[in-house]
Design a protein that fits this description.
This protein is α/β, with parallel strands linked by helices. It has a single domain (about 1-333), classed as Peroxisomal Thiolase, Chain A, domain 1 (3-Layer(aba) Sandwich). Helix content is about 30%, strand content about 25%. It has helices at about 25, 35-40, 55-70, 95-105, 120-135, 155-160, 225-245, 260-270, 285, 295-305, and strands spanning about 5-15, 20, 45-50, 80-85, 110-115, 140-145, 165-175, 180-190, 195-200, 220, 250-255, 310-320, 325-330. The protein has a five-stranded mixed β-sheet with strand order 1-7-6-4-5, sandwiched between helices. Strands 8-13-12-11 form a four-stranded mixed β-sheet, sandwiched between helices. A hairpin with a 3-residue loop joins β12 (about 310-320) and β13. It is globular, with a radius of gyration of 19 Å. It starts with 5 loop residues before the first strand and ends with a strand. It binds coenzyme A (COA). Coenzyme A binds near residues 41, 196 and 261.
Length: about 325
């Protein structure tokens, strides 16, 4: 019998829309201020997708995937599975993953979406890891691609300042050498569904600011209660992950948390006793890109040279559902 393979990260990529929406521009849309948004969230600007620029959810996911495939040095023919985490697929059906498969011409892949709120990427990672370890796939693309701008109520200052669009992707390859994804944990509590949900409807057109008056559906959120759950659940699952891998805080080179709010990240840093300078954050530039936030941040951190081969990386996520999760990765590239 051959030994069970390990799931190694072979490449990372990301893509964001061109259009930047600054806090100052938001001041003209709702009753808010750059000062309030920065102080309460740490967000300075976010990206919004536009019509005619190939910035649909599938377009962004495809662009991120191509960049990850370039680093992994693989062709589309090698991809066995495409898992896309998204709550903002371009259509209810088919999945964003199938549209991405089509664009990549990854004709041999099985493709499907995962819906687990902002935690979707860690859920996708768990599925990819399980299928590689079971010998069912050798090369898996896990993509987080979102256009939250299409679900936001642009008249609700309590939520519209928080979200943005973007995508991140990784290629995971089966290898015999130990390392790669060391653990994944995923959790849910559906009893808390009404802390963050979308009222109704389908994704709207990309040029969302032109359609503000026509949007019949939007995100509803109890920010304050959600904040406390985010801190408690993410800190708890991060500590469980460290314990399971018998790692102490100094073993972790970098933490890539879900990018919802800088104050949430600071509170987690305190609770798990890993200093903020080992947390990667980019939410000042992108806001909360839902399940794209972790792979987008991971790609940036890697490309900036902040993650090196052999490093232990801790991912920790939280989102609507409620859902939360964590993964520990020993970096392979
Ligand atoms: N600009 C200016 N004022 C705003 C505002 C905005 N964009 N949004 C809300 N306010 C006001 C409120 O109306 C309230 O006014 P009041 O005191 O007169 O009633 C005041 O600011 C405080 O609101 P509150 O909601 O208590 O602020 P907060 O400190 O909890 O911060 C969030 C709000 C949304 C930033 C914060 O709760 C949060 O980040 N929660 C978690 C969100 C999250 O993680 N969501 C995604 C999960 S994946």
């Amino acid at each position: 019998m051959t030994a069970m393979p390990f799931s190694h990260i072979a490449g990372t990529g990301s893509a964001v829309p061109e259009r930047i929406l600054s806090n100052h521009e938001l001041e003209k849309i709702v009753d808010t201020s750059d000062e309030w948004i920065m102080r309460r969230t740490g967000i300075k600007e976010r990206r919004l997708s536009s019509t005619g620029k190939h910035e649909s959810t599938a377009d962004l996911g495809t662009a991120a995937a191509r960049r990850a495939m370039e680093i992994a040095d693989i062709s589309e023919r090698q991809i066995d599975t495409i898992i896309t985490s998204t709550v903002t697929a371009d259509r209810i059906t088919p999945s964003a993953a199938c549209l991405i498969q089509h664009q990549l011409e990854a004709n041999h892949a099985a493709a499907f979406d995962v819906s687990a709120g902002c935690s979707g990427f860690t859920y996708g990672l768990e599925l990819a890891d399980a299928s590689i370890r079971a010998g069912k796939a050798e090369t898996v693309l896990v993509i987080g691609a979102e256009r939250l701008s299409t679900f936001v109520n642009w008249q609700d200052r309590g939520t519209c300042v928080l979200f943005g669009d973007g995508a991140g992707a990784i290629v995971i390859s089966a290898r015999d050498a130990p390392g790669g994804i060391l653990s994944t944990h995923i959790r849910s509590d559906g009893a808390l569904w009404d802390l963050l949900y979308c009222e109704d409807g389908n994704p709207g057109p990309p040029d969302i600011l032109n359609y503000i008056k026509h949007i019949p559906f939007h995100i509803k959120m109890e920010g304050n209660r959600l904040f406390k759950k985010a801190v408690a659940f993410m800190a708890d699952i991060a500590l469980q992950s460290l314990a399971q891998n018998k790692l102490v805080r100094d073993d972790i080179a970098i933490v890539i948390p879900h990018q919802a709010n800088l104050r949430i990240i600071q509170a987690i840093s305190e609770k798990i006793d890993i200093p903020m300078d080992r947390f990667y954050t980019n939410l000042h530039r992108y806001g909360n890109t839902s399940s794209a936030s972790i792979p987008l941040a991971m790609d940036e951190a890697f490309r900036q040279g902040l993650i090196k081969k052999g490093d232990h990386v801790l991912l920790v996520s939280f989102g609507a559902g409620l859902t939360w999760g964590a993964a520990v990765i020993q970096w392979s590239i």
